[in-house]
Design brief:
With 282 residues, the protein is of the alpha/beta class. Helices cover 34% and strands 22% of the residues. The protein is built from nine helices and ten strands. Strands 1-2-3-4-5 form a five-stranded parallel sheet. It has a five-stranded mixed β-barrel with strand order 6-7-8-10-9. Helix 4 packs parallel to helix 5 and helix 8 runs parallel beside helix 9. The longest helix is centred in the last third of the chain and has 24 residues. The mean pLDDT is 93.
Length: 282
């Protein structure tokens, strides 16, 4: 269903030393957060070194002076190893945030998508991650209306969303991409049904997010300052639970002048389904 592998070709890892050298140079320029990202970061190293190297890379990045956060995106569930989980648990610099695109939870749909995991393996992994990594923020992405998806299979996905309670979730209606196997499947779903299913998933997630956000009121969080919002007359930034551009924002008032790239403590005073508002505290 995804045309990216055809466009980009086989997975190609950059040399370990090259990545570290680039990261060290960025740190010298004042970068405080590294985002490690690839089509599938969990596959890093296999083509060059014949083994998983992501955990070693993350550990090495944490040793670079002045870097405060290391964040990882796009960790496919079938390739997450115990050594990766241990790297997260052992290094405070690696934020407790995992972006794990699962796309669906019904076993028939997962197989049709070409996914290499089952519902049982996914649920077991999520429980393991939450047990091993305290205060973990889990982000995932889902597809509704994949060809031949029945109402019952969609309801299974919706119930999974409600019970798993992901901290971050995006749902997308299936798009019939040219030159993909899924586009040639019989049983394409009507657009209105795909969109209606997407809306139901996002409504459920909105309720979950609102509840999780309300639990933050009264707590003090660390915020990486990104700028000043002249409309709201407040600074804004992200917590360790928020990645750039795709997640929530924390707005805060302060009597001090703060610079983008600095870290401040903010007490949360209010929250809606996605954003928080607070005040800087010493």
């Amino acid at each position: 269903y995804c045309v990216i592998p055809k466009l980009r070709g086989k997975y190609r890892s950059r040399p370990f030393e090259e990545i570290v050298a680039e990261a060290e140079e960025l740190a010298k320029q004042g970068v405080r957060e590294f985002i490690v990202i690839a089509q599938d970061t969990t596959r890093y190293g296999y083509d060059l070194y014949g083994e998983e190297k992501l955990s070693a890379l993350l550990t090495r990045l944490c040793q670079i002076e002045s870097v405060r956060w290391v964040r990882v995106h796009y960790m496919y569930p079938e390739s997450i190893t115990d050594s990766m989980i241990e790297a997260f648990a052992a290094n405070e610099t690696i934020v407790n945030y995992m972006d794990i695109p699962i796309q669906h939870i019904n076993n028939r749909i997962l197989k049709l998508m070409g996914r290499k995991t089952t519902k049982e393996q996914i649920t077991e992994l999520i429980q393991k991650l939450r047990d091993k990594i305290p205060d973990l923020t889990l982000r995932t992405s889902l597809i509704t209306g994949f060809p031949t998806e029945t109402e019952e299979e969609f309801e299974e996905l919706l119930e999974f969303v409600k019970t798993t309670r992901f901290e971050r979730l995006g749902a997308f209606a299936y798009s019939q991409e040219e030159n993909t196997a899924a586009a040639r499947l019989a049983g394409q779903i009507e657009e209105r049904i795909k969109l209606a299913r997407q809306e139901r998933v996002m409504e459920a997630q909105n309720d979950i997010s609102a509840h999780l956000q309300k639990n933050k009121i009264g707590k003090t969080v660390e915020v990486l300052v990104e700028g000043y919002d002249r409309e709201n007359l407040m600074y804004f930034g992200r917590t360790a639970a928020d990645s750039i551009e795709v997640d929530t924002v924390t707005y805060f008032a302060t009597e001090d002048e703060v610079l983008p790239g600095s870290f401040v403590k903010v007490k949360i005073l209010d929250a809606d389904s996605y954003d928080c508002t607070g005040v800087q505290v010493e």
